[in-house]
Design a protein that fits this description.
By secondary structure, the chain is of the alpha/beta class. 44% of the residues lie in helices and 15% in strands.
Length: 279
Amino acid sequence: MFSVSSKNVLITGGAQGIGRLFAEKTLLEGGQVVIWDINEAAMNKTATELRSRGGSVSTYVVDIASPASIKQAADQTRSDIGDIDILFNNAGIIVGKDFTDHTSADIERTLNINTAGPMHVASAFLHGMLKNGEARIVNIASAAGLLPNPKMSVYAASKWAVIGWSESLRLEMERGGHDVKVTTVTPGYIDTGMFEGVKPPLLAPIIKPEKIVDLVWEGMKKGKVYVRAPWVVGLLPFFRGILPARVFDFFCGKLLRIYTSMDHFKGHGASRKQPGTPS
């Protein structure tokens, strides 16, 4: 199986939430942690705690919404430690409200961070990955990228786009015979506090961060195409494909209660800074 030992592992949004758990996994398996995050205070605290365990941790303040910030950080990262072997595109945000209440700034920042950000980060390191051989790219999308949901319009759109890009990138790597495995992750709601106030749908309980991180980690090492959790998420593409739209709406809205799950969403506050990327 693919080994993390001595690999350079970049985690965007790695200061907290599931990003931090990915960093901990990296250290446990002998990898070199590289954290990119816009929250410098949280990132420094996490890095200090990880270094106290004897691990190698590099940190960079990066605004994933800015291609210029990404390029600058990528150039500095390569200068400091070399190419990246494993990339977790984990950073993301959500504005949990009706589309009529979104501002232009809400829309632009959500798409820049959730959609364009992972593309720019991958682009910055992909040539090095291709040159060095065996590598991994893990794109944390969302179950919201597989179905619509009220109060998640722009977020859902951003994650649909990530899934399409991630899948296309995977096919390009496979068709080119490259040993760069691309894994697309579509989790439901994760218990990081980011989705405080949501009511979990029927058959889709809120996932513990440690559980999804374990699943993603093993999927990454095996080079899996998808990691989907909970199990019902894996059925969504099938049911969307065979059911008429109104029947699917009844199934998801009335029976599973997905369409009302965000009715009382609170999140982490006005900025909705996302530590991981739940549904």
